[in-house]
Amino acid sequence: MPTLLFDFDSTLINCESLEEISAEYLDDQTRQDIAIITKAGMEGQVSFAESLSFRLKLAQPNKISIEKFTANPKKYLTDGMPELIKSLQADKNYDLWIISGGLIDVILPFADYLNIPRDHVRGITGRWYGDNFHLNQKDPFAQGKIQGCAALAPSWHGPKIAIGDGMTDFALYQDGLVDHFIAYTEHASRDFLKKHDLKSARNTHELKLALDDLLVA
Question: Which pLDDT score is estimated for 217?
Fold first, then answer.
């Protein structure tokens, strides 16, 4: 049973969730700073842990903004993604996961909408003290996807395929935790992709073709 690991931001959804959540209450300069740090992290120019710490400090996510963002998953889901996920689930030959560097509180409502079991979702965890989010530093996903997936990978059936837009997704392939990587470029095409000859998909139609090609091969 092939294992498909979907990234969340700019893959399953059409934006970077932390930027979108904080957009209405941050000034333009702070939003630009968050976007710059996000890009640096996705390009591998700074570590994921550094990027996450800086972005959370600047964005200061709160429960109300998260509830607004998650109230209508359909608004943010990538075009064609619900249909693709549904077709993969109907096939019953795929083990679907969401592996993300985003906040788990944001991701779970989307997983529910897509009928992906919550125990197949991994993201950044923490505790809320009033309206203040405190990162769980002991969570290996706070250090990066490689650290977070290290304990999970042995239980996944092959072939294992990571699908995402960032260096953190590609790193799973580089470190041998997955067998294949598909760069999803509809919402963000990262500079690091130019340095590697990678299978890519510009939309969900191309993603389906890429998956079919890998699995038939």
Answer: 57
pTM of the model: 0.93
Please list the alpha-helical segments (H only) found in 24-138.
Answer: 28-43, 48-59, 63-70, 73-76, 81-91, 104-113
Chain mean pLDDT for the chain: 92
Spans of the chain, pLDDT less than 50: none
DSSP string, the chain: --EEEE-IIIIIBSS-HHHHHHTTTS-HHHHHHHHHHHHHHHHTSS-HHHHHHHHHHHH---HHHHHHHHT-HHHHBPTTHHHHHHHHHHH---EEEEEEEEEHHHHHHHHHHTT--GGGEEEE-EEEETTEEEE-TTSGGGT-HHHHHTTTGGGSPSSEEEEESSHHHHHHHHTTSSSEEEEE-SS---GGGGGS--EEESSHHHHHHHHHHHHH-
Instruction: Return the pLDDT at 64.
Output: 92
